[in-house]
Amino acid sequence: MPDLDEGRSSNELLQEISALKQEVAELKAAKVELELLQDVTTSLADDVLTDLDQRNRSIRSIFGRYMTEEVVSTLLASPAALKLGGERQTVSVLVADLRGFTALSERLAAEDVLKMLNCYLGQMTEVIGQYDGTINDLTGDGLMVLFGAPSVRQDDALRAVSCAIAMQLTMSQVNQKMKEWQLPQLQMGIGINTGEAVVGNIGSEKHAKYSAIGKHVNLAYRIESYTVGGQVLISEQTLEQVRSVVIVDERIQIIPKGLSQPITVFSLKAIQTDGSLALPLEEQLLKMLPHPLTVQYATMQAKQVSPVTQQGQLLRLSSREAELRLRQSEAGSFNLAISAMSDLKLNLRWSDRPDDWSDDIYAKVLSNNTASDTVFVYFTLIRPAEADRIKKFYERL
Fold first, then answer.
1. Which residues contact 305 (CB under 8 A, 6 or more apart)?
2. Alpha carbon 112 to chain centroid distance?
3. What angle do CA 243, 248, 251 make, to 5 degrees?
4. Burial (CB count <10 Å: 0-12, 13-18, 19+), residue 357
5. CB-based contacts of 56, cutoff 8 Å, min separation 6
6. 295: Cβ–Cβ under 8 A, 6 or more apart, which residues?
7. What pTM value is reported for the model?
8. What is the largest CA-CA distance in the chain?
9. Would the CATH topology of 84-271 be identical to that of 287-396?
């Protein structure tokens, strides 16, 4: 007969073996589950990283439409960069604006205005990006660009003046589109100033804007307001930074709003170190009219046309400029309100027919002569049909 103890030992051994097999099977199943879990975890991690990368790219893409990559990177890299406040640093401020566009936009369909602005701003932002400018403000047809923020470089002023000329040269491409769309030609003025400003996040916790403030920023806007189409005016502070590499051909005395004394600004023409950055020379030959044309004019302040209109005479003309004799005031003296750099809205009477008046022509007074009651003006905005009529009239003189 078999030994009972041996029987128990065999049973126990079988049970242990069975238990071990069960544990092995469970371990194998756990291993499979662990490997599956690792695969799922890795896949989820990859998905999360991919999603985060896509979100990051999306954030950069969205905000990149409103500020430069450099500003976006600065804000995303450090939470401290999002805090309100700023610091003083030297910047070159470029301000650009289309001449007469506000008045023009009131007479065009909203769709045409938007089409013109998108074309113009699209071209300008491309150029600004090439020179690493920070677009600080974009209001309608106006641009304010910083060079020297958020990062300061040795060539901030040089990049600002180079960018300004490149922007003016690019206007030919913009106007080619305007011609194709049968819309008015556009002219842009640019002012540049260099000086210390407070740069940082301005606003509230709910809404903040990366910007620059200070008197030197304001002065850049004032300088721009004195420009005619196709012109770049720079301050003496900016000229000091780039004197050895730029060509300027005109010194202009202006008294910007808020200043009691005149300052000198300079008309920028070219960058000596880059032959491609030179503004075209426009030779204006004024021809005397055999018989003066009647002119109706109104002054403009802050882009608003005065309701008071007066009459004068057009004496000499070119395709872009004219000499006008303006009516004397009731006191018998020259209208001193028409000073150099004033803005005017003009209408020319082409013939004796009562309805033969030109469309609105916008102009800036370049100089005046109180002895002869005459002013020289530069046409800043003319609708295509009117520009063609002036050109043909001028060619017949």
1. 103, 298, 299, 345
2. 19
3. 105
4. middle
5. 76
6. 311, 312, 313, 314, 324, 346, 347, 348, 349
7. 0.68
8. 150
9. no
Take residue 360 and report the two structure tokens written for it: 């609105």
Q: Could you state, in order of their start, the residue ranges of all structural domains in the chain?
A: 1-63, 84-271, 287-396
Q: How confident is the model at residue 196 (pLDDT cuts 50, 70, 90)?
A: very high
* Fold (topology level) of 84-271: Alpha-Beta Plaits (3.30.70)
Structure tokens at 358: 């030109």
Residue 350, burial from CB neighbour count under 10 angstroms (0-12, 13-18, 19+): middle
Q: What is the CA radius of gyration of the chain?
A: 34
Mean pLDDT over the full length of the chain: 80
Distance (Å, rounded) from C-alpha 218 to C-alpha 225?
11
pLDDT at 20 over 60: yes
What's residue 227's pLDDT? 87
In the chain, where does DSSP find H-type helix?
Answer: 4-63, 69-77, 101-105, 110-130, 156-180, 215-224, 236-242, 384-396
Contact between 265 and 236 (Cβ < 8 Å): yes
Report whether the peptide linkage leading into residue 384 is cis, meaning its omega lies within 30 degrees of zero.
no
pLDDT (tens digit, 9 = 90+) per residue, 223-271? Answer: 998 888 888 999 999 999 999 999 888 788 787 777 778 888 998 999 9
Cα(252)–Cα(242) distance, rounded to whole angstroms?
18
3-state secondary structure (DSSP) of residue 317: strand
CA 285 distance to own-chain centroid: 32
Coil/strand/helix, residue 8: helix
- CATH of segment(s) 287-396: 2.40.10.220
What DSSP string runs through 329-349? PTTSS--TTS-TT-EEEEEEE
